[in-house]
Amino acid sequence: MKQYNIAYLPGDGIGPEVSAxxxxxxxxxxxxxxxxxxxxxxxxxxxxxxxxxxxLSQSALTEMADCSxxxxxxxxxxxxxxxxLEQGILLALRxxxxxxxxxxxxxxxxxxxxxxxxxxxxxxxxxVVRENTEDFYMGIGGRGRKNFQVPLHAKxxxxxxxxxxxxxxxxxIEMAIQLGAISRxxxxxxxxxxxxLAKKRGEKNVALVSKSNAVPHIYGFLDEVTKEVVAKEYxxxxxxxxxxxxxxxxxxxxxQGWGVMICPNxxxxxxxxxxxxxxxxxxxxxxxxxxxxxxxxxxxxGSAPDIAGTGKANPIAAILSAAMMLQHVGEDKAAAVIxxxxxxxxxxxxxxxxPIEFGGSASCSNVGDMVLARIK
Length: 376
Ligand code: ATP
Ligand code: MG
Description:
It is built from 11 helices and 14 strands. It is of the alpha/beta class. It has 3 domains: 190 residues, Isopropylmalate Dehydrogenase, CATH 3.40.718.10; 119 residues, Rossmann fold; 40 residues, no CATH class. The longest helix is centred in the N-terminal third of the chain and has 18 residues. 42% of the residues are buried. Pfam families: Iso_dh. One of its GO terms (molecular function) is oxidoreductase activity, acting on the CH-OH group of donors, NAD or NADP as acceptor.
């Protein structure tokens, strides 16, 4: 029997609660479809950090590298200064394993309340392919006044970036500068990922979310290289370039009808949250951080300390992220079965069987059980 070692970080707050429901469902589909999952658990998160001062360890990273994928519950705790866990764990993992894609499907499910009602029979079913390492999220910049220097350093798997900016102002005013960079190999790999995904989904078009009219240096280059890759390597696909502002306007009026959207880091962050809101909210939004090495799957919500331990957490996002993980390791059939079970449960649930988040009375583990009961 095929066995996958899965690195598992339950984390904080509702992380372990929602992950437990995903595990229930995974145990069932793995036995039904003839593979097994071996969980390699790690303690990292706020509790471990507050107790030991450790965020991640080198030996853990080595152990994780041997796994087929990683599942993460959530990390975060109001007792830890904002940013410490995000940078020390989530971003550290992303950069260490060069997870250059943040994959965020936005799917509207039956009976899940939406802020904008869709015409009967129509569905939101798109996916944001967000570049995850470059653009304005490289953390390089600085501030000063009159005459100052800004050292610019970033270390990425693709390259080490080093520069110094000599700023001379004709007035003594304060100024802050943040640099975004986009590289040809960085664009190429995201474009290929988005196009492969579009092919797999049976789509004829991919969208590139850009803003080259106002930010011509980096997003003009982005448009150019993306067009080149699609024309040369994916002649069966058409590429539509859409400005991020226009996209937000269109999404607010008609969120359905989109497919694969390739986004640079900053726009991808914003557009994927907008779509998560439009498609039903945090309780159903899952994400994958994908690279050529270890990839990591997680619900997009945080640790939700306000509802931790109350049974109010909705585990569907965690269950859907488990399905994404199975798809990633090549268990497409088992992944589809999980998605279908979620759909079937939501479609038939009367209000009392719906998650508390959607006005129902089903607790976290009730929801997990009801999804489990629909696994075919
Ligand atoms: P973190 O710092 O860990 O990211 P956060 O403060 O950003 O946490 P989230 O944990 O993302 O916040 O939660 C935002 C709000 O959404 C909270 O009120 C939380 O209770 C609610 N929420 C988040 N996830 C879920 C879920 N799975 N089910 C129900 N409610 C949720
Ligand atoms: Mg958050």
